[in-house]
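Structure ticket #2291
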Amino acid sequence: MARYVEHTRSWEFDEDRSRWEQILEVLNARIDSGEWGPKFKISEVKLMEEFGVARPTIRKAMERLRSADKVYTVPNLGSFVKADSETD
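Resolution: structure written out below.
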């Protein structure tokens, strides 16, 4: 999984796995831990800045979250974390 390096304030990625997979692990952990609660708005722009990657990389991870039924997207509004009852 990607690791946050405090002294450089940046993320380090494993070179043997794609970045979107590692970012997906971080995002899943944030949702599963409750750090991102129900209806939390996920900003692709902020994620791009945080992880230092291009938008297609973030979008690939977001698509996997949608496929896993953990987030939903409202056209022209953004993507949001689903409530537990919404995933059933």
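Closing remark: Helices lie at 19-33, 44-51, 55-67.
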